[in-house]
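Crash report, auto-generated. Payload:
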Amino acid sequence: MRVDTTRFGQLETLELPDHAILTLPRGLYGFEAHRDFAIIEEARYLPFRWLQALDDPCLRFVLLPPALVDPRYAPELSPSDRALLELAPDERYDLYAIVVVPPDLRAMTANLKAPLVVNPRRRLALQVILSDERYSLRHPVAAGTVQFAGDGRAAC
Amino acid sequence: MLVLSRRAGQAIQIGQDIEVIVLGVEGGQIRLGVRAPRAVTILRSELISQVKDQNILATNSDGGALLRHLHAAVRE
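Recovered output after restart:
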């Protein structure tokens, strides 16, 4: 499927496989009208991925695996979240932290309080707000595994 | 909006499964206890607006800066 994105500022069109396309039945907080998204994943840019709205090239979010930011990250999903994601008991799911990228990457933060949870089998995703007080909306990324050199360059 | 007056120790029932109990009133603060099934998500309302604000900041992320940094990392 062809998907338009401004993930790097300029408009580009990518050809993505069907399994990259996701439905968010509740949208994202603040963007409830958008339900259809894709996850853009390219080996050369990992661990970064993007969540791209299919109906708006400018609506895109940078994602990082939360375990890179906090190795002890282990959020608990509620039964209602699991039901919305159509997860079978003990079924595997993917977790992504939505990232804020400022001009200086050393100040990058990841939202560990409200991660994106994906059921890859059903291609359903949900932004879940955790009641766990340990997790922050603005967790510094540079404190985890992703390191930035003195001039702000990323090195993972 | 339904408005009720309750004293410490009194409660209200919402539907069959949810009970909200006033545990105490101190200064300007009320301590509430909520009894609800595990499937019900209970959040402080202001947290939802904080998540919205954070999502708006996230979608304004500096894509150009990230690209330059990623390419610098790939070249190394």
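Post-recovery validation: Residues 149-156 of chain A have pLDDT under 50 and may be disordered.
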